[in-house]
Design a protein that fits this description.
- By secondary structure, the protein is α/β, with parallel strands linked by helices.
- It has a domain at 87-204 and 235-294: Rossmann fold (3-Layer(aba) Sandwich).
- It is built from nine helices and 13 strands.
- The strands form three sheets. It has a seven-stranded mixed beta sheet with strand order 8-7-6-9-10-13-12, sandwiched between helices.
- It is globular.
Length: 295
C-alpha cells in the first residue's frame, strides 16, 4: 500500500474498535485517474462498534484529496452545469422557510450555486464556500453569488454570523465531521439551524444492493451515515435534532419507484449476465434530510 492510502480509525469517533461491514469495495470513479494514481488498493466499509458509524478504509491521504478538490476539481464538475434537482431544492427551501423565513445563509460546499441562488431569489442573504475553482466561478459569474473559493477553517467566519448552514451532499466527504459541526455551531446564531442532505446506509436501496450501492463508487465518499450515527454527531456537537426524513435525491416518488424496482434490477441483470461487468446501481429512496438546531 502506498502512502497515498491511509488506514483509518472511525472517522466519526476515532475508535479503532470496528469490524468489516462490506469487504472488497469497487470504485469505478475517475478520481485516481485524474490524480495520476495507478495503484490498485483494496478497501472495505467498516462498522464502528462504538458509535455505529460506517466508513471507508483505507482512504486517500487528506492533502491529496484537498488538492483534488481545489486544483483538479471533483469529477462531479466535469459536466455542463444544470439545475437537475430544482424540485428537490424547492422542498429544502420550503423546509427551511418554515423554521427560518428570512436571514443569513451559508452553504458549505455550495457547488455550482443552484440551491443557494434559490434561497437568494427568496430573500435570504447568501454566502457560499466551495473549494472547486470551476464551480465557484460559475456560481459567482453566472449566478452572481457571494462565493469564497476555499476550504472552511475556524477563522473563515466570525461567531454568530448565520441563521442557517446548509450541507448538501457534503458530509460524506468530510474527514473530521465533529470538527466541522463544532465550527458550524460556532458560526450559527442562537437558535440557528443546520440542514444536512446525505446518503443513508440504512436505506432499503443500500441494504438491498450492498457493495453495488452507488455511494460506494466514489473515493470521495468516506463516511456513510445512518440515523444512529447522525444523532451521535449532533449530540457530540450541541445540536438538537428537529427533523429527520427519508429524501429522494433526484426525481419524483414515482420515478424513484421506477429506479428501484425496474431500472436497478434490469440493469443489474444486463451487466451481470450480458456485459459480465460490475456496475453500481443508481440512487433511489436512499438519502436523509436532517435539520438540527443549535442548543
Amino acid at each position: 500500500m502506498t502512502e497515498l492510502f491511509i488506514k483509518t480509525n472511525c472517522i466519526l469517533c476515532n475508535s479503532a474498535n470496528s469490524s468489516i461491514y462490506i469487504d472488497n469495495i469497487v470504485h469505478n470513479c475517475q478520481m485516481l485517474k485524474n490524480l495520476n494514481i495507478n495503484s490498485i488498493v483494496d478497501s472495505s466499509i467498516m462498522l464502528c462498534l462504538e458509535c455505529s458509524h460506517h466508513y471507508l478504509s483505507p482512504i486517500i491521504e487528506e492533502n491529496t484529496i484537498k488538492d483534488y478538490y481545489n486544483r483538479i476539481n471533483s469529477e462531479y464538475y466535469d459536466y455542463i452545469p444544470s439545475h437537475a434537482r430544482k424540485n428537490e431544492d424547492l422542498k429544502i427551501l420550503s423546509a427551511v422557510q418554515k423554521l427560518k423565513p428570512k436571514g443569513n445563509i451559508l452553504e458549505i460546499g455550495s457547488g455550482n450555486g443552484f440551491l443557494l441562488n434559490l434561497f437568494k431569489e427568496n430573500g435570504y442573504q447568501c454566502t457560499g464556500i466551495e473549494p472547486s475553482p470551476k464551480a465557484s466561478e460559475y456560481a459567482k459569474n453566472t449566478l452572481n453569488l457571494n462565493i469564497l473559493n476555499t476550504f472552511l477553517t475556524k477563522d473563515t467566519f466570525a461567531e454568530n454570523s448565520f441563521d442557517v448552514v446548509l450541507l448538501m451532499d457534503v458530509l460524506e466527504h468530510i474527514y473530521r465531521p465533529i470538527e466541522l459541526f463544532n465550527q458550524c455551531n460556532k458560526i450559527l446564531k442562537k437558535g440557528g439551524i443546520i440542514v444536512v442532505l446525505t446518503g443513508d446506509i440504512d436505506s432499503l436501496n443500500a441494504k438491498f444492493w450492498k457493495n453495488k450501492w452507488f455511494y460506494f463508487n466514489y473515493w470521495e465518499h468516506i463516511s456513510f451515515f445512518s440515523r444512529a450515527s447522525i444523532e451521535y454527531l449532533l449530540l457530540k456537537t450541541d445540536f438538537k435534532l428537529i427533523k429527520y426524513s427519508i429524501f429522494n435525491h433526484t426525481g419524483s416518488y414515482i420515478f424513484n419507484l421506477y429506479k428501484f424496482f425496474i431500472h436497478n434490477i434490469l440493469m443489474n441483470m444486463y451487466n451481470v449476465w450480458i456485459k459480465r461487468k460490475f456496475k453500481h446501481t443508481i440512487s433511489s429512496f436512499d438519502h436523509m434530510l436532517v435539520i438540527a438546531e443549535k442548543k
